[in-house]
């Protein structure tokens, strides 16, 4: 399988090269040239598979011949063996035909573990085969950083530098990153917001001279196609367990960067019968404003009770725009240039109407988030984290087909966000066993000004491959 850039000017690459490249050389994002398609009888035959077995079926066509089948099998088995629930992504019922899929049973209690536990293993495998070294520079609004660190800290061939916005992630999220004391792990608290951190990641990819040719730069944010690929699996897993392909299933996805719900879009393109995809946003609602009004425009970023979604520029949205424009890379390059210059874009009405056919959307306030946490707990005794509560509220507001099961992706464990739980008048749950001493562990991180030169200088000074 070949991968092409959304901006049309970068060379097509195989999976191994895309894994190590991240952002394309023309500034675009890599997507498969063609998607694998699964027939209903194939999907039906997967009903008895466990999560890792299903992941192997879904992922193999994307990897093609880049990794031998027996090695890919071992990598996938090792990835999901470390999850704390034997179902890996268990499904819990909230009401009549209403469900949540728990994506927080990985080591860092968030959905990012599904992709980043796999990504770390894939990176180390490919780098070892090539006898190469890599520097990861990533940005996080909370969960990506800890999941990336957990996935990559055992890697012998990787140094990982994760930027988070200083004082803008929850304490549990910060400590999950900063208490991993390893020679190849570096946490940077940047005096800015998530979008500032993400902009510096993109700037690093645009000009990699600061690496001095001593290592290659690799992305762990969802601009890396391997992240999307891994997330496609749990859509198949939930849908099959709720009756697919014999009936269609709907999903509500709390999202800021558009990666998680884009994986659902890909699953539908691959043949999974998805009835509805609901984009659930908080106050930082650039995606909702586009889907509801054809306005993709930067506005002021507002801190909320759902910090992992406090994002104003949704990096993966470019992948959807690429498809909406008939995979015309030149058109996307022009749109992205306009967005960078003016901070706003709209698209032709008929393309926007196609987006509305693909997605519903809803914006949920902090007050509605707290109310939903309280309501669901009163109805069921089930405790939602604030991001999942946004998904549940959006699902209930946007649902168009009561016959289709509605699944909200439960993207994080509620223990990570005690402020929202307390505001709902409820007691925050205890930390899981493997994190009971989290608040006693030593922290290590560096506060830096919001300056690209300072970040790159820190990498050169502290990275193992520069010594």
Automatic annotation (TrEMBL):
UniProt pathway annotation: Amino-acid biosynthesis; L-threonine biosynthesis; L-threonine from L-aspartate: step 5/5
Modified residues (N6-(pyridoxal phosphate)lysine): 112
Enzyme class: lyase
Record-annotated Threonine synthase N-terminal domain positions: 2-80
UniProt keyword Lyase, yes or no: yes
Cofactor(s) needed by this chain: pyridoxal 5'-phosphate
Domain Tryptophan synthase beta chain-like PALP intervals: 92-331
Entries under Gene3D superfamilies matching the protein: 3.40.50.1100, Threonine synthase, N-terminal domain (3.90.1380.10)
Enzyme Commission no: 4.2.3.1
Recorded superkingdom: Bacteria
Annotated family: Belongs to the threonine synthase family.
Name this protein carries in UniProt: Threonine synthase
Organism: Spartinivicinus marinus
């Amino acid at each position: 399988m070949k991968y092409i850039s959304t901006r049309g000017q970068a060379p097509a690459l195989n999976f191994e090269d895309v894994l190590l490249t991240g952002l394309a050389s023309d500034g675009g994002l890599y997507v498969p040239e063609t998607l694998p398609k699964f027939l209903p009888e194939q999907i039906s035959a997967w009903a008895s598979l466990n999560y890792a077995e299903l992941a192997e079926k879904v992922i193999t066509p994307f990897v093609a011949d880049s990794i031998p089948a027996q090695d890919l099998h071992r990598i996938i088995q090792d990835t999901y063996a470390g999850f704390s629930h034997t179902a890996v992504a268990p499904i819990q019922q909230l009401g009549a035909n209403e469900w949540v899929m728990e994506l927080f049973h990985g080591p860092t209690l968030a959905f990012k573990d599904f992709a980043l536990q796999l990504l770390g293993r894939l990176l180390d495998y490919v780098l070892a085969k090539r006898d190469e070294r890599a520097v990861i520079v990533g940005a996080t609004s909370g969960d990506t950083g800890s999941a990336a660190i957990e996935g990559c800290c055992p890697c012998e061939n990787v140094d990982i530098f994760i930027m988070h916005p200083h004082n803008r992630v929850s304490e549990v999220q910060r400590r999950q990153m900063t208490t991993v004391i390893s020679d190849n792990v570096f946490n940077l608290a940047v005096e800015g917001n998530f979008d500032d951190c993400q902009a510096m990641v993109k700037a690093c990819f645009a000009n990699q001279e600061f690496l001095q040719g001593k290592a290659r730069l690799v992305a762990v944010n969802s601009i890396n196609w391997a992240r999307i690929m891994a997330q496609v699996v749990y859509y198949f897993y939930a849908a099959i367990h709720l009756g697919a392909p014999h009936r269609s299933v709907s999903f509500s996805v709390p999202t800021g960067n558009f990666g998680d719900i884009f994986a659902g879009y890909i699953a539908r393109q691959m043949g999974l019968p998805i009835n509805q995809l609901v984009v659930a946003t908080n106050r930082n609602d650039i995606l909702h404003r586009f889907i509801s009004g054809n306005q993709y425009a930067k506005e002021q970023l507002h801190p909320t009770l759902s910090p992992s979604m406090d994002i104003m520029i949704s990096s993966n949205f470019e992948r959807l725009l690429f498809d909406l424009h008939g995979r015309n890379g030149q058109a996307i390059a022009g749109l992205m240039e306009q967005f960078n210059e003016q901070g706003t874009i709209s698209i032709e009405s008929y393309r926007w109407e196609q987006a509305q056919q693909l997605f519903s959307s809803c914006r949920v306030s902090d007050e509605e988030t707290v109310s939903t946490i309280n309501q669901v707990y009163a109805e069921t005794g089930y405790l939602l984290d604030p991001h999942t509560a946004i998904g549940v509220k959006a699902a209930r507001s946007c649902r168009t087909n009561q016959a289709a099961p509605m699944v909200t992706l439960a993207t994080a464990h509620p223990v990570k966000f005690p402020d929202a739980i307390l505001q709902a008048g409820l007691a925050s749950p205890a930390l899981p066993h493997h994190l009971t001493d989290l608040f006693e562990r030593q922290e290590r991180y560096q506060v830096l000004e919001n300056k690209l030169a300072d970040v790159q200088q820190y990498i050169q000074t502290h990275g193992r491959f520069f010594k």
